[in-house]
Amino acid sequence: MQILAEINGNLNAIGYGLAAIGPGIGIGVLVGKALEGIARQPEATGVLRTNMFLGIAFTEALALIGLVAGFLFT
Amino acid sequence: MQTVGVNLLAFAGITASDGSGFEPPSIAEFFPGPILFAGTPYELNRVNAIGLFMTLVLSVFFVAAFSNMRFVPRGIQNLGEMAVDLVQVNIIDEVLGHKGPRYAVYLTSMFWLLFAFNITGILPLMHVSVTSVIGLPLLLAMVSWVIFNVEGIRANGLGHYLKTNLFPPGVPAPIYLLVTPIEFISTFILRPVTLTIRLLANMISGHLLLVLFFTATSYFLFDSHGIMKLVAAPAWLMGFAFTLFEVLVAFLQAYIFTLLTAVYIDGATSAEH
User: Fold this and answer.
1) Class assignment of domain A18-72?
2) Label partner for B65 (CA 20 to 30 A): which of B28, B33, B164, B199?
């Protein structure tokens, strides 16, 4: 039997890809809304930026746990 | 040509059997062999040695900046004041307000310690972040955990502190069966865990990306044949771009770790409800 194409690798990569979807969308929405707020009210930039980074920190934690899980559950 | 194309698709899976093939980076990157005191409990590897070195650099910098203070700052004192001011204005004043001075020393030193330990990931001759092994992030997260809990108990009293954290007001009594365990886990267990993992995973993934791109550059340049050598150029460019990105990540992770600690302290000490 002739093998035309072969991909070898690890299923963890796919798991991480799945884990990154949600936080990706989340960070997109979050930063978009923060920028919208800054554009509407430039004098609130400081507070908005701080809270944006807070939100990003909570959201991206999920993607990062996905990354760590790939190393843990081998 | 067909086999080469397929190999490119799956090149992360190629193993080096004869030492000349492509060797993808692994988690072993972060555990190099001992360089000093091998076999004793004080064994030092490259990562620990870099940590000690950066601690020394940071201490010398701040002692030099503030040992001979003048009313009108000159020379290195300017730099030192900028360093302190950055944390003071962007984190402490912003989040803690009038409660700031009590925690300013801890937060400022934590920010610069974290930044110094993160930035070694891209500094020449070092090329590994001290924070990409779990010890340091875990230690700092635990110190932050102790501080926000102790300060919360000191400000509110143990009973009131637990009550505001575990029994948020305005919830019908039976729902507390559900809410209290969730609040307990998220406040007292998940906070230090996510602080640790956020920093650690950012540093691990950054380092692995850089290693991946630069080993790929070397592999395509020296070990591949014909037109495949050209792939080395985009691989190197991506490595270069991610080196710049890592500068941003090093700063941002130090900022977020410190910011979250400040937010936790503020939440614990504010007299609410």
Assistant:
1) mainly alpha
2) B199
